[in-house]
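step: validate -> pass
step: tokenize input -> pass
step: predict -> running
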Amino acid sequence: MPYDIKTDEEKLSEQLKKSDLSGVYIIYGNDTYLKQYYFDKLVSLSYSGDPFFNLQKFGYDCNIQDVYDAVNQFPLMSDSKCVVLDDYDIFTCSKDDFDRLCKVVPEVEQGCVFIIKFDYIDFDQKKESKVVRLTKAVQKAGGHIYNISHRSKAKLVRMLMKSAARRNITLPESEATYLVETVGEDLNILRNELEKLCLYRKDGKITREDILEVCVTDMNASVYDYVGCITDGDVSKALKLLDKMFFMRVDPYSILFNIGMVYCDMQRALAAKRSGKTKNDLITDFAYPDNMRFKIDRANRYLGRFDRPKIEKSFDCLIKTDKLLKSFGGDPRELLEQTTVELTAILWGAEF
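step: predict -> pass
step: emit ->
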């Protein structure tokens, strides 16, 4: 049998098209928009007749016995019903309540679809005992578990380009890629930022400058752009990006911490390069999540002007700034502006 490389989103989408729903579903994942989209679709296809009788919803503070009773009732004046358990905290509930929830799973009445959805509760903990137990109960009962997470960067890029084209606006692949790296991989945020860009541009082609001007950037991407300006010797542009982060009311300690993490990524990339390690080795050794792997590419891109002594001097500069920030002896903005100039001077020396 060939290995199934379909994502959980694709598997759920195919099942919804068949409208052949039954049993228990667990929906979780890190993409809020997609998760809600498929959840709503799943609910709408799971019951018929009057929702007052055949759609029952329970929240985090429910009595599990009520849920148990609901899934064991037949649909009323209909062939199907749906019971939803939304964001129930399996980690803090009592042992009796969790045992009862696991007992609910194999006893769902025919004609009922039982959907367990996790939003704020982190169900993606493979080794957590309660996750393992609930997962096994659902699988044994023939149920379905779907991790609806961010789409791959390639899929997001294609989606953004097509969405822009439908508005008669050109979004080049390079700029769509940069938009994903800058804003992040949450589809809901990307849709909002693309809408803003299209309204701003109105027609023609979206540029890198448009993205920098209009979009609310992800902290990681903003700081990487900032360090990129330092490696280019463009202290003026670096200070503008710093100004933008302050305008967005990002905490100064968070800014400094994230700058330090960029230098950590570069130190790791430099060490890997010198020891013959690959990008995949770095991902494995330091457990970079999928949505942060761009950091390795950006770190490697910036290594051209760096060597070990320059990175060490840069860390000394960042440690000094950290101590000054925590001593409350100076204005945070002025300290970070001074740090920007010092980091550029360390890299460029007399050329700066």
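step: describe -> Residues 270 and 276 are 10 Å apart (CA to CA).
step: cleanup -> pass
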